[in-house]
Every structure is written in C-alpha cells, then in structure tokens.
C-alpha cells in the first residue's frame, strides 16, 4: 500500500510540475505576444507621426507672417494669418484649383466607366483571345510616360488637343486603365453569378445586368479605383507641365510651381497654397477610407 501511495504521490508531483511548466510557457507566449504588439503599435505610431507632422507643420506655418516663420520655425503662430490663404487663392490658386477639379473629375469618370466595361467583359464573357487581350491591356502598366513623351506630344498636336484640358484627360485615362482593369476584373471574378443569372431570367439584357447588378455589387472596388485615379490626376505633374502652355489652364502642381517662381520670399502664402492643394485629397480619403481599403484588399486578394 505504501508503494502504491508513493507512486500515486510521485505521479501527482509530475503532473503538477507539467501543469506549472505549461502555465509558464503560456505566460511566456502571452508576454511575447504583448511585446510584439507593443513594438508594432510603436512602429505604427512613429510612421503616422512621420506622415502627419509635416502636414501639421505646413498648416501651422501657413498661418504665420514671413518674419515669424523664420524667427520661430517650430512654434505656433501668435496671431493666425488666415489672410495668407485668401492671398494664395487670389494669386491664382483658385483658378488652378478649378482646373484640377475639371481634369480630375473627367479622368475619374473616363477611367472608371471604361475600365468597368472592360473588366466585366473579361471576367464574365467567353470570347476568342480573351486572355491575350487581358495581358495586352495589363501590359500597359509597363509603359513609361517619360519614354513616350515625344510621340505623345506629336500625337496631341496632330489631334489639336495640345494646350487643352483634353490632353490631360485623355492621357490620364489611357495610362491608368491597365491598372484599374486589373483591379476591377479581379474583384468581379469573385462576384456570385446567381444574381446575374436571375436578372437574365427576368428578361434583363447585358447592359441592364451590368448597371443594375454588377456595379452595385462592385461599389467598393469602384470607390477604390476612383480614389486612386483622383490621387493620380490631382498630383500629376509631367503631363500638365508638357501639354499645357496657357496660364489659365494649368493645374495645381504646375500652378504652384509658377507661384513659387513669382513669390520666392513669401513662404507662408506658398505654404497656404500647398494646404489648399492637399485639403481635397485628405478629405476625400478620410470620407471613403472604409470602402477604399475593402475594395483594394479584395481586389488584390482575388487577383
């Protein structure tokens, strides 16, 4: 009996030791996970600070006088000068702002509509050389605007689009269609076919199915594509510098460069112009960030 009791006590001791070891291991794993999460949050905070602080400094500096800006570079303005924003608008930022809105809105409409049509056809219809056509379209992402600048200049001149909004709109649309088709097609491949088949059974044609079924289901990727195109067109510099000569037709990136050449010493006004130029994209991204992230993640994931 003593031997049995001894063995039972030994087994209980071994079992409790393993329990202690398991508890210790779980504690180590949890501590490691908390440490990794803390390091990750710290890195994300540092990354966010590196992005947001220059924007904050630009906003603060735009509200200073020129003397105050150089005397106290990092300090807050004692008396915010909102007149700098008004002055920047009068210097031509207002006109450049309107030009950028026209070009950006037109290019968004063109890219989204054309790319959605092409992506739907490539995702849903079987026709000869479908894969070849898809790779031909996606191959457009390898084209460099810098390399094609001279032939594009000749083409825009022959088409009488040089020094017009049309030159910027056509080129912005053409160079962004490949990437947008790639995203939209990947997203549409994952859409359920049952809803489309039900619409066909109810007598709908291809156009009705596209506009009434496919586009509403593809709204996240449509928003993502529109926002990406907006960022591209709003900040596009090379085409705007090359194909626009008239001062009244210049967009914000080139227009701000001209203002900088004219007003080299009035830095707060220049910074105010930069704030005006950045504000629409910041507001647009914040207001659409959920759909943007969802559409972009699902588009890449399904691709």
Description:
The protein is mainly α. The chain has two domains: 2-61; 92-302, Orthogonal Bundle (MetI-like fold), CATH 1.10.3720.10. It has helices spanning 2-61, 66-71, 83-124, 130-138, 149-158, 165-189, 194-201, 206-217, 219-235, 238-243, 252-262, 267-302. The longest helix is centred in the N-terminal third of the chain and has 60 residues, at 2-61. The mean pLDDT is 84.
Which structural traits does this protein have?
single chain; 303 residues; mainly alpha; MetI-like fold; 2 domains
CATH architecture of the largest domain: Orthogonal Bundle
Q: Order of SSEs, N→C?
A: HHHHHHHHHHHH
What is the C-alpha radius of gyration, as a whole number of Å?
29 Å
Query: How many structurally independent domains?
Result: 2
CATH topology of the largest domain: MetI-like fold
Give the structural class. mainly alpha
The CATH class name of the largest domain reads: Mainly Alpha
Largest sheet: none
* Count of distinct strands: 0
Overall mean pLDDT:
84
Strand content: under 5%
Describe the structure in brief.
With 303 residues, the chain is mainly alpha-helical.
Summarize the helices and strands and which ones pair or pack.
Layout: H1 2-61, H2 66-71, H3 83-124, H4 130-138, H5 149-158, H6 165-189, H7 194-201, H8 206-217, H9 219-235, H10 238-243, H11 252-262, H12 267-302
Helix pairs in contact: 1-12, 3-6, 3-9, 3-11, 3-12, 6-9, 6-12, 7-8, 9-12, 11-12
């Amino acid at each position: 009996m003593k031997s049995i009791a001894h063995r039972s006590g030994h087994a209980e001791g071994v079992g409790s030791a393993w329990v202690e070891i398991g508890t210790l291991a779980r504690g180590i794993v949890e501590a490691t996970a908390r440490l990794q999460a803390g390091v990750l949050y710290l890195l994300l905070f540092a990354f966010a600070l590196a992005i947001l602080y220059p924007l904050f400094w630009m906003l603060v500096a735009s509200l200073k006088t020129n003397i105050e800006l150089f005397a106290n570079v990092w300090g807050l303005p004692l008396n915010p000068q909102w007149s700098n924003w008004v002055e920047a608008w009068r210097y031509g930022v207002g006109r450049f702002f309107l030009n950028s809105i026209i070009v950006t809105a037109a290019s968004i409409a063109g890219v989204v509509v054309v790319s959605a049509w092409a992506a739907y056809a490539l995702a849903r219809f079987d026709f000869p050389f479908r894969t070849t056509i898809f790779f031909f379209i996606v191959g457009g992402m390898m084209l460099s605007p810098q390399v094609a600048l001279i032939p594009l200049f000749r083409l825009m001149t022959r088409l009488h689009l040089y020094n017009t909004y049309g030159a910027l709109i056509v080129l912005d649309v053409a160079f962004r269609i490949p990437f947008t088709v790639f995203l939209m097609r990947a997203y549409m491949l994952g859409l359920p076919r049952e809803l489309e088949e039900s619409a066909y059974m109810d007598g709908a044609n291809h156009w009705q199915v596209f506009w009434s079924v496919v586009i509403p289901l593809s709204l996240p990727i449509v928003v993502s594509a529109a926002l990406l195109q907006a960022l591209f067109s709003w900040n596009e510099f090379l085409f705007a510098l090359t194909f626009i000569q008239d001062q009244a037709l210049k967009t914000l990136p080139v227009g701000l460069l001209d203002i900088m050449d004219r007003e080299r010493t009035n830095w707060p006004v220049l910074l105010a112009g930069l704030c005006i130029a950045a504000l629409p994209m910041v507001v647009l991204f914040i207001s659409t960030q959920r759909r943007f992230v969802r559409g972009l993640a699902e588009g890449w994931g399904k691709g």
